[in-house]
């Protein structure tokens, strides 16, 4: 049975044949002539037949050697291609990063970051899927995505097994129908019907209303911030929405009211510890943390009510 051929010996063989002699091949490889001869002898043992005819003017491949040379050329081309691909990835010329994002971040942050990466000419390709924070964290743990844009309200638990990079504070607004007479604070809405959002937003709504001294009458529950605004615009409910959701889209029949008592949510990125060392992932994290247009970075919170 023929032995498997050592790729290093194939590359040595190729260098010698292309250079025309063992001494010239050794110079090209930066090796000693005895070391090259040893590699060639090992390759001929693996092949089970002579591969070179040695003469005073150099070497010539045998018929078997010519066949091996063709394969050695293919091995050399594959190794060079692999090296170039790795250099491209390390040099951030290209690479794919998978990221999960909650809906309003997918509408506001992701397009800005993708545009930032394109303008920098990194060649990094961003692949995004929508997921609320608990599902996004599970995607990170399962290695389905490298990064997850997520948010936390005050008092809500963290993910101790994952790294957390805070990006910005996202103010929370009281959302009212345009025809509503207005309020001084949250307590003025104790008798209203409410629309609540995702699990974390709903928990924050309940906590904020409890702090204001009442339990909200939640009649509608939906993860869709567009649906929440549609209900509000028709006068069917009031709600709390983060400003990022209002920046993504705002109905004409809706107005946002600030209340200093409402704590903002923190928007950030979840990832496995160490993944930031992957160059393409690091480029995306840098774009996120740098605060590109539409995606405020650390220390750059957006404030003020959304336009009606």
UniProtKB/TrEMBL annotation:
Any single GO CC term annotated in Swiss-Prot or TrEMBL for this entry: protein-DNA complex
InterPro entries listed in its UniProt record: LysR_HTH_N, LysR_subst-bd, WH-like_DNA-bd_sf, WH_DNA-bd_sf
Cited PROSITE patterns: HTH_LYSR
UniProt keyword 4Fe-4S present: no
Keywords linked to the UniProt accession: DNA-binding, Transcription, Transcription regulation
UniProt keyword Transmembrane present: no
Domain of life: Bacteria
Domain called HTH lysR-type: residue spans: 5-62
GO molecular function, one term: DNA-binding transcription factor activity
Family classification: Belongs to the LysR transcriptional regulatory family.
Matches recorded under PANTHER family: LYSR SUBSTRATE-BINDING, TRANSCRIPTIONAL DUAL REGULATOR HCAR-RELATED
Protein name stated in the entry: DNA-binding transcriptional LysR family regulator
